[in-house]
Each structure stands twice: as structure tokens, then as C-alpha cells.
Design a protein that fits this description.
Layout: H1 5-25, H2 34-43, H3 45-80, H4 82-95, H5 100-111, H6 115-139, H7 143-151, H8 156-193, H9 199-208, H10 212-240
Helix pairs in contact: 2-10, 3-4, 3-6, 3-8, 3-9, 5-6, 6-8, 8-9, 8-10, 9-10
Domain ABC transmembrane type-1: 53-237
Membrane topology: Multi-pass membrane protein
Keywords: Cell membrane, Membrane, Transmembrane, Transmembrane helix, Transport
Length: 246
């Protein structure tokens, strides 16, 4: 039996239910059917694929790279210093208690409609799971293993490279698989609240025109991109953490 078959069946059932509900409402500006969304996506493929998708992906890539560097850096710092952990951990948690939709307009006010206002929203959403998950990976390393390497003459640098990094790699890839969809959501939120291009901006523009299928078309494209990116990360994980598959 194909491992993906249950998921495919569930998706088919949900799409069928959506199609039936849309036909029952018969108001495309409120709830377009999946067929209408796909047709509209094809009709809008020009601006979506040539202008708005590249704009959104630029935000996603830059924001995700910054989040990886920031998140891993903070995790390493907190693991290396108990003082840093006590100082930073509460602030990292507190950063997630502020509604992103409240900060995004401020970012637009500070940086205008440039890419950096959207990047900041993306970083704010994505650095947290990377930081916390990677830090948990470092903390999962057993003290007995560290002490054993110490007795063999290993220093802290060697323990970090030979023990902690391999042990934390599964946590790192789990964090990235969480951060990829969140980065796309963050970019879309930033574009929705203030932008001149991007899939989030395009979806909001279609809403002002009461084009229900046009609102869903960029959302569908974002979902496909998120799933494809997560699949690529999963492939990299299998290649780099080969011992888990043995």
C-alpha cells in the first residue's frame, strides 16, 4: 500500500466537500469552488508567476536565512553559557507573545514598502521554532557522553563538533520543516498589510475586487510552494542524517 494513499484520499474527500459546499452556496465571491480557483490561477499565471511569486520568494529566502543564522546562533550561545540562557530565553519567549499583525504596520511605517518590512515579519515568526528546537537538541545530549569524551582527552570544541552537532541535526531539520511554511505565512502577512507586490498583496487586491477565486489563487500557489519546499528539506534530511535510515 502506498504510504501517501491515506493522505491523498483525505485530500480528495475534502476537495469534494469543498466543491459541493461551493455549488450549494452558488456565490463565487464568497466561496469559490476548487475548480474555479484552479481556473483562475491559470488565467492569472502571467502576473502571479513572473512578478508576485518571485517577490514573495525573495522575502521568504532572505527571512529564512536570517532566521537560521539568528536561531542557531542564539541556541549555541544559550547552550554555551548558562547566564546567556537565563537572560535570553525569557526574551525569546516574550517575542512570540506580541501579535504579528500589530507589529507589521509598524515595520511598514519604519521601512516603507521595501522588502525589509516583510523580511522582519518573516524573521519574527520563524526564528523562534529554530532557536528553541535547536537548543533542545543541544540539551538532549547526554552528560555521560560528554564526560566520556572528556576522559578521552577531547576539548569543548571537539565535543561540540563530534557529539553535539550530529546529535542536534535531527532537531535542526525538524525546525527547518516547521520554519519553511511559517516563513511563507510571514511573507504573505507582511505583503497583505503593506506591499506593492507579492502573492499576499495580490490576494488582498483581489479581495477589494470581490474576486473570490482570485483571492484563493495565490493562496493555493503559496500552499503548493510550501509543500514543495518542505519536501526538499525532507530529502536533504534523509541524505545528511543517513544513519537514521539504516
Amino acid at each position: 500500500m502506498n504510504a501517501n494513499l491515506p493522505a491523498l484520499i483525505l485530500v480528495a474527500v475534502l476537495l469534494f466537500a469543498w466543491q459541493v459546499a461551493a455549488m450549494g452556496i452558488d456565490a463565487a465571491y464568497i466561496l469559490p469552488s476548487p475548480v474555479q480557483v484552479v481556473v483562475r490561477l491559470w488565467e492569472l499565471r502571467g502576473p502571479l508567476f513572473t512578478a508576485h511569486l518571485p517577490a514573495t520568494m525573495s522575502v521568504v529566502v532572505i527571512g529564512l536565512l536570517i532566521s537560521i543564522v539568528l536561531g542557531v546562533g542564539l541556541a549555541v550561545l544559550m547552550d554555551a553559557s548558562e547566564t546567556a540562557r537565563k537572560a535570553l530565553y525569557p526574551l525569546i519567549i516574550a517575542s512570540q507573545t506580541i501579535p504579528t499583525t500589530a507589529l507589521a504596520p509598524l515595520f511598514v511605517l519604519w521601512f516603507g514598502y521595501t522588502i525589509w518590512s516583510k523580511v522582519l515579519v518573516t524573521v519574527l515568526i520563524t526564528f523562534f521554532p529554530i532557536t528553541i528546537t535547536v537548543f533542545d537538541g543541544f540539551r538532549s545530549v547526554k552528560t555521560e557522553m560528554e564526560e566520556l569524551l572528556f576522559t578521552f582527552g577531547a576539548d569543548k570544541r571537539q565535543i561540540f563538533l563530534k557529539l553535539k552537532i550530529p546529535a542536534t541535526l535531527p532537531y535542526f531539520f525538524s525546525a527547518i520543516k516547521m520554519a519553511v511554511p511559517l516563513s511563507i505565512i510571514g511573507a504573505a502577512i507582511g505583503e497583505w498589510l503593506g506591499a506593492q507586490s507579492g502573492l499576499g498583496y495580490f490576494s488582498r487586491r483581489m479581495m477589494t475586487q470581490l474576486d473570490g477565486a482570485g483571492v484563493f489563487a495565490p493562496i493555493l500557489l503559496l500552499s503548493v510552494v510550501a509543500m514543495a519546499a518542505t519536501w526538499v528539506v525532507s530529502l536533504l534530511e534523509k541524505r545528511m542524517i543517513f544513519w537514521r535510515n539504516e
